[in-house]
Structure prediction request, 173 residues.
Amino acid sequence: MRKLICALLLSLTAAAFAAEPSQFTVGGFSFARPDGWGWVNPTSPMRKAQLSVTGEKGNGEVTFFHFGAGMGGSVDSNVQRWCGQFGGPEVAKAKTAIETYGTVKVTYVSANGTFNSGMPGGPTTPMENYALLGAILQDATNGDVYVKLTGPAATVEAATPAFQKMIKTATAK
Prediction:
């Protein structure tokens, strides 16, 4: 009986890992999930994919959005909205940078401070010493893809190299 239970548990564990894709598509891009980052079933219909990042100071969340061609607002309006989710003196140090990988233009956004977590226009929960690292992958044909990592500042900082690699190596379909 014990062997049967162990075999069943092993098969359920293997099935759970198989359900966590290492590659996934959002909009016109294919992404590779970084090693050690968990797959999360999206908690909102607006989210096309969602990942979790484990950190010593608390976990981070990576969310992917795609609204279609011509939808989702401009790059600048999204940068302003993301930075507007932060308060405190650190937010004045928010940064943007533009990179081009092949034919894909990517706008990176970073901000630190008190993150006001919650849906736009709804109630928020202030989360102190948080950070954001975002990337907007521009695609005029299929629509831009918005990727946002938020979490405790130490978690976001530790995850930054893997996040940037994931964005840099995303391939257009």
Observations:
- DSSP finds three helices and eleven strands in the chain.
